[in-house]
Design goal:
266 residues; alpha+beta; Phosphatase 2c, domain 1; five-stranded antiparallel β-sheet; 7 helices; 26% strand; globular
Length: 266
Protein backbone atom coordinates (compact mmCIF):
# COMPACT_ATOMS: atom_id res chain seq x y z
CA UNK A 1 0.00 0.00 0.00
CA UNK A 2 1.51 3.27 -1.10
CA UNK A 3 -0.74 5.75 0.70
CA UNK A 4 -3.71 5.76 3.06
CA UNK A 5 -5.68 8.82 4.16
CA UNK A 6 -8.98 8.96 6.00
CA UNK A 7 -11.22 11.67 7.41
CA UNK A 8 -14.64 11.58 9.03
CA UNK A 9 -16.17 14.70 10.58
CA UNK A 10 -19.65 15.65 11.81
CA UNK A 11 -21.88 18.16 10.10
CA UNK A 12 -22.30 21.61 11.58
CA UNK A 13 -24.50 21.52 14.63
CA UNK A 14 -24.48 17.70 14.77
CA UNK A 15 -24.60 16.18 18.23
CA UNK A 16 -22.50 13.24 16.98
CA UNK A 17 -20.92 11.93 13.81
CA UNK A 18 -23.18 9.29 12.27
CA UNK A 19 -20.61 8.37 9.59
CA UNK A 20 -17.75 5.96 10.15
CA UNK A 21 -14.63 4.75 8.35
CA UNK A 22 -12.78 1.50 8.99
CA UNK A 23 -9.59 0.30 7.25
CA UNK A 24 -7.42 -2.78 7.79
CA UNK A 25 -4.12 -3.32 5.93
CA UNK A 26 -2.22 -6.63 5.74
CA UNK A 27 0.64 -6.44 3.27
CA UNK A 28 -0.87 -6.38 -0.21
CA UNK A 29 -4.32 -7.27 1.13
CA UNK A 30 -6.87 -5.26 3.06
CA UNK A 31 -10.40 -4.05 3.60
CA UNK A 32 -12.12 -0.69 3.93
CA UNK A 33 -15.60 0.34 5.03
CA UNK A 34 -17.39 3.69 4.79
CA UNK A 35 -20.84 3.98 6.36
CA UNK A 36 -23.22 6.93 6.41
CA UNK A 37 -25.87 6.71 9.10
CA UNK A 38 -29.39 7.73 8.16
CA UNK A 39 -30.35 10.57 10.49
CA UNK A 40 -32.74 9.19 13.08
CA UNK A 41 -35.74 10.58 14.92
CA UNK A 42 -34.91 9.57 18.48
CA UNK A 43 -35.65 6.42 20.49
CA UNK A 44 -39.37 7.07 20.79
CA UNK A 45 -39.81 7.11 17.02
CA UNK A 46 -37.18 4.54 16.04
CA UNK A 47 -37.81 1.91 18.68
CA UNK A 48 -34.04 1.75 19.36
CA UNK A 49 -32.60 3.19 22.54
CA UNK A 50 -29.04 3.24 21.19
CA UNK A 51 -29.20 5.60 18.24
CA UNK A 52 -27.74 5.83 14.74
CA UNK A 53 -24.10 6.51 15.69
CA UNK A 54 -24.08 3.40 17.90
CA UNK A 55 -25.58 1.29 15.11
CA UNK A 56 -23.08 2.57 12.55
CA UNK A 57 -20.14 1.77 14.81
CA UNK A 58 -21.39 -1.77 15.45
CA UNK A 59 -22.07 -2.48 11.78
CA UNK A 60 -18.73 -0.93 10.74
CA UNK A 61 -16.82 -3.17 13.14
CA UNK A 62 -18.80 -6.25 12.07
CA UNK A 63 -18.28 -5.53 8.36
CA UNK A 64 -14.54 -5.08 8.74
CA UNK A 65 -14.28 -8.31 10.72
CA UNK A 66 -16.39 -10.22 8.18
CA UNK A 67 -14.40 -8.84 5.24
CA UNK A 68 -11.17 -9.84 6.96
CA UNK A 69 -12.39 -13.45 7.35
CA UNK A 70 -13.26 -13.85 3.69
CA UNK A 71 -10.19 -16.12 3.17
CA UNK A 72 -9.26 -14.61 -0.19
CA UNK A 73 -12.74 -15.31 -1.54
CA UNK A 74 -14.39 -12.92 -3.94
CA UNK A 75 -17.51 -12.53 -6.02
CA UNK A 76 -20.98 -11.06 -5.72
CA UNK A 77 -22.35 -13.80 -3.48
CA UNK A 78 -19.41 -13.60 -1.08
CA UNK A 79 -19.64 -9.81 -0.66
CA UNK A 80 -23.39 -10.00 -0.08
CA UNK A 81 -22.93 -12.83 2.41
CA UNK A 82 -20.40 -10.66 4.26
CA UNK A 83 -23.00 -7.90 4.59
CA UNK A 84 -25.64 -10.39 5.69
CA UNK A 85 -23.31 -11.79 8.35
CA UNK A 86 -22.39 -8.33 9.65
CA UNK A 87 -26.01 -7.19 9.89
CA UNK A 88 -26.92 -10.39 11.73
CA UNK A 89 -24.10 -9.78 14.22
CA UNK A 90 -25.19 -6.19 14.79
CA UNK A 91 -28.80 -7.28 15.18
CA UNK A 92 -27.91 -9.72 17.96
CA UNK A 93 -26.40 -6.91 20.04
CA UNK A 94 -29.77 -5.18 20.55
CA UNK A 95 -32.61 -7.40 19.41
CA UNK A 96 -33.61 -8.07 23.03
CA UNK A 97 -33.70 -4.42 24.03
CA UNK A 98 -35.04 -2.64 20.92
CA UNK A 99 -37.96 -2.92 18.51
CA UNK A 100 -36.17 -3.89 15.33
CA UNK A 101 -39.43 -4.27 13.41
CA UNK A 102 -39.84 -0.48 13.50
CA UNK A 103 -39.41 0.99 9.99
CA UNK A 104 -37.37 3.85 11.51
CA UNK A 105 -34.85 1.59 13.23
CA UNK A 106 -31.26 2.89 12.79
CA UNK A 107 -29.95 2.49 9.24
CA UNK A 108 -26.92 3.30 7.11
CA UNK A 109 -25.66 3.47 3.54
CA UNK A 110 -22.37 1.84 2.62
CA UNK A 111 -19.27 1.60 0.44
CA UNK A 112 -17.12 -1.51 0.93
CA UNK A 113 -13.81 -2.66 -0.52
CA UNK A 114 -11.64 -5.75 -0.18
CA UNK A 115 -8.45 -6.33 -2.14
CA UNK A 116 -5.70 -8.85 -2.73
CA UNK A 117 -2.73 -8.79 -5.07
CA UNK A 118 -5.07 -10.06 -7.79
CA UNK A 119 -8.52 -8.53 -7.26
CA UNK A 120 -10.29 -5.45 -5.94
CA UNK A 121 -13.90 -6.19 -4.93
CA UNK A 122 -16.30 -3.30 -4.30
CA UNK A 123 -19.78 -3.09 -2.82
CA UNK A 124 -22.04 -0.03 -2.68
CA UNK A 125 -25.49 0.50 -1.23
CA UNK A 126 -27.48 3.72 -1.61
CA UNK A 127 -25.63 7.05 -1.56
CA UNK A 128 -22.07 6.18 -0.61
CA UNK A 129 -19.64 6.00 -3.54
CA UNK A 130 -16.42 4.34 -4.66
CA UNK A 131 -14.18 5.97 -7.28
CA UNK A 132 -11.28 4.18 -8.96
CA UNK A 133 -8.43 5.72 -10.91
CA UNK A 134 -6.87 3.19 -13.23
CA UNK A 135 -3.20 3.11 -14.11
CA UNK A 136 -4.00 4.50 -17.58
CA UNK A 137 -5.36 7.65 -15.89
CA UNK A 138 -9.10 7.35 -16.42
CA UNK A 139 -11.55 7.12 -13.52
CA UNK A 140 -14.71 5.11 -12.92
CA UNK A 141 -17.46 5.82 -10.38
CA UNK A 142 -19.20 2.88 -8.73
CA UNK A 143 -22.62 3.77 -7.35
CA UNK A 144 -26.09 2.56 -6.52
CA UNK A 145 -28.16 5.17 -8.33
CA UNK A 146 -31.60 4.00 -7.14
CA UNK A 147 -32.07 6.82 -4.62
CA UNK A 148 -30.99 9.60 -6.98
CA UNK A 149 -33.29 8.28 -9.73
CA UNK A 150 -36.25 8.21 -7.35
CA UNK A 151 -35.47 11.71 -6.07
CA UNK A 152 -35.68 12.99 -9.63
CA UNK A 153 -39.12 11.43 -10.06
CA UNK A 154 -40.82 12.01 -6.72
CA UNK A 155 -41.14 14.84 -4.16
CA UNK A 156 -39.17 14.52 -0.89
CA UNK A 157 -42.25 13.77 1.19
CA UNK A 158 -42.83 10.55 -0.77
CA UNK A 159 -39.33 9.12 -0.49
CA UNK A 160 -39.76 7.20 2.78
CA UNK A 161 -42.40 5.04 1.11
CA UNK A 162 -39.69 3.64 -1.18
CA UNK A 163 -37.16 2.71 1.50
CA UNK A 164 -36.20 -0.99 1.43
CA UNK A 165 -38.94 -1.94 -1.02
CA UNK A 166 -38.50 -4.00 -4.17
CA UNK A 167 -38.97 -0.98 -6.45
CA UNK A 168 -37.27 1.52 -4.15
CA UNK A 169 -33.87 2.27 -2.60
CA UNK A 170 -32.12 0.28 0.10
CA UNK A 171 -30.19 0.87 3.32
CA UNK A 172 -28.48 -1.37 5.84
CA UNK A 173 -30.91 -1.90 8.71
CA UNK A 174 -32.09 -4.62 11.08
CA UNK A 175 -33.09 -7.11 8.36
CA UNK A 176 -30.00 -8.93 7.01
CA UNK A 177 -31.83 -9.81 3.78
CA UNK A 178 -31.24 -6.25 2.52
CA UNK A 179 -27.77 -7.55 1.56
CA UNK A 180 -29.26 -8.92 -1.68
CA UNK A 181 -29.55 -5.32 -2.96
CA UNK A 182 -25.84 -4.56 -2.56
CA UNK A 183 -24.26 -3.63 -5.89
CA UNK A 184 -20.91 -5.33 -6.38
CA UNK A 185 -17.99 -5.28 -8.83
CA UNK A 186 -14.68 -7.09 -9.28
CA UNK A 187 -11.67 -5.38 -10.85
CA UNK A 188 -8.19 -6.74 -11.60
CA UNK A 189 -5.99 -5.14 -8.94
CA UNK A 190 -3.10 -4.71 -11.35
CA UNK A 191 -5.04 -2.03 -13.21
CA UNK A 192 -5.89 0.10 -10.15
CA UNK A 193 -3.85 3.11 -9.08
CA UNK A 194 -6.15 4.77 -6.51
CA UNK A 195 -9.42 4.06 -4.70
CA UNK A 196 -11.56 6.75 -3.07
CA UNK A 197 -14.60 5.93 -0.91
CA UNK A 198 -16.92 8.72 0.23
CA UNK A 199 -20.18 9.31 2.04
CA UNK A 200 -22.79 11.58 0.52
CA UNK A 201 -21.56 14.49 2.65
CA UNK A 202 -18.38 14.43 0.57
CA UNK A 203 -20.23 13.65 -2.67
CA UNK A 204 -22.05 16.99 -2.31
CA UNK A 205 -18.91 18.40 -3.98
CA UNK A 206 -20.29 16.87 -7.21
CA UNK A 207 -24.04 16.48 -6.88
CA UNK A 208 -25.40 19.34 -4.79
CA UNK A 209 -22.75 22.05 -4.85
CA UNK A 210 -21.41 21.69 -8.39
CA UNK A 211 -17.82 22.34 -7.30
CA UNK A 212 -16.56 19.98 -9.98
CA UNK A 213 -16.99 16.58 -11.54
CA UNK A 214 -15.73 13.31 -10.10
CA UNK A 215 -12.38 13.67 -11.86
CA UNK A 216 -11.97 17.10 -10.17
CA UNK A 217 -12.76 15.60 -6.77
CA UNK A 218 -10.34 12.73 -7.37
CA UNK A 219 -7.56 15.07 -8.46
CA UNK A 220 -8.11 17.25 -5.38
CA UNK A 221 -7.71 14.39 -2.91
CA UNK A 222 -4.80 12.82 -4.78
CA UNK A 223 -2.89 16.11 -4.93
CA UNK A 224 -3.90 17.73 -1.62
CA UNK A 225 -5.42 14.99 0.54
CA UNK A 226 -8.84 14.13 1.89
CA UNK A 227 -8.67 16.99 4.42
CA UNK A 228 -8.58 19.40 1.47
CA UNK A 229 -11.85 17.93 0.19
CA UNK A 230 -13.46 18.42 3.60
CA UNK A 231 -12.22 22.03 3.76
CA UNK A 232 -13.51 22.81 0.27
CA UNK A 233 -16.97 21.45 1.02
CA UNK A 234 -17.19 23.25 4.37
CA UNK A 235 -15.93 26.51 2.87
CA UNK A 236 -18.65 26.37 0.25
CA UNK A 237 -21.30 25.68 2.87
CA UNK A 238 -20.09 28.50 5.09
CA UNK A 239 -19.46 31.13 2.43
CA UNK A 240 -22.06 30.39 -0.23
CA UNK A 241 -24.98 28.64 1.41
CA UNK A 242 -25.01 31.15 4.29
CA UNK A 243 -24.20 34.16 2.11
CA UNK A 244 -26.26 37.21 1.11
CA UNK A 245 -29.72 36.39 -0.11
CA UNK A 246 -29.88 33.07 1.72
CA UNK A 247 -32.47 32.93 4.45
CA UNK A 248 -33.00 30.32 7.10
CA UNK A 249 -35.49 28.44 4.94
CA UNK A 250 -33.17 28.06 1.92
CA UNK A 251 -29.90 27.55 3.76
CA UNK A 252 -28.83 23.92 3.49
CA UNK A 253 -27.04 22.56 6.56
CA UNK A 254 -23.81 20.61 6.23
CA UNK A 255 -23.78 16.85 6.55
CA UNK A 256 -21.41 14.39 8.20
CA UNK A 257 -18.52 13.87 5.77
CA UNK A 258 -16.27 10.87 5.30
CA UNK A 259 -13.57 10.07 2.74
CA UNK A 260 -10.98 7.27 2.53
CA UNK A 261 -8.20 7.42 -0.08
CA UNK A 262 -6.04 4.41 -0.90
CA UNK A 263 -3.19 4.60 -3.41
CA UNK A 264 -1.64 1.29 -4.38
CA UNK A 265 2.01 0.57 -5.09
CA UNK A 266 2.85 0.23 -8.75
Amino acid sequence: MGRLESITIPGSGSASNEDCARVCLRGDEGEAVVLDGVTGRGPDASGCRHGVAWFVDRVGDALLASLGRRCDASGDAVMRDIVRTALSAARRTHERTCDLSNALTPQATAALAAWTARTLTLGVLCDCYAVVRYVDGHIEVFEDAALRVLEQRHPPQRMEAFRNTDDGFHTLAADPSVAKWLRTWEIPASGVESLLMVSDGAARFVFEYGLGHWHDLMRLVEESGVAALARRVREFENEKMAGPGKNAETRKPSDDLTAVLLQFDA
